[in-house]
Amino acid sequence: MLRAVEITAELTLPPPREHFHNLHWQRKLDLSLDCFVCERTGRTTRFEYGEERAVCTGDARVEHPAAARVAGFDVTSVQDRLRIRSVVDYWWAPFHDTKRDRPATALTRAPWVRLYLGYHCAESGKEGAFSTQSNMVRPVSTACAHCAAPLAADDRSPGIRLLT
Ligand SMILES: [Zn+2]
Ligand SMILES: [Zn+2]
To answer: Source organism's superkingdom (predicted)?
Structure first.
């Protein structure tokens, strides 16, 4: 069955500054899925927007292609908010995870996502990157690794919702 999951996230930007950092969402993400190929629940699956498949990261770093892709990737910046709404499509089939002794679910039991951000520091002329994810201590503020200017505040976990 083809399934779709919507991922939403939002960061708060500091007041405009002289040294603009062009903070932006990178076109990739990691999402936990129940993988019918390796028959394990809660697999970290790596996605890049534009790729026709994703990568399931298996045990002991044994990876395999996953029938999954980023179908939608919409970013908006409204006033002091930097938002993303992404839709991920993936093929899901029922199975039983024998290692954890639990059935697979269309949206994995405790879904988890990691989103990536990039920026350019005009003051130093260097690039920088960081990520935000489910299950981390909030609120958290991130500063530029080069000039220490504030970049974003993160006070809410990303939303993960099964659409179909
Ligand atoms: Zn797998
Ligand atoms: Zn900077």
So the answer is: Bacteria
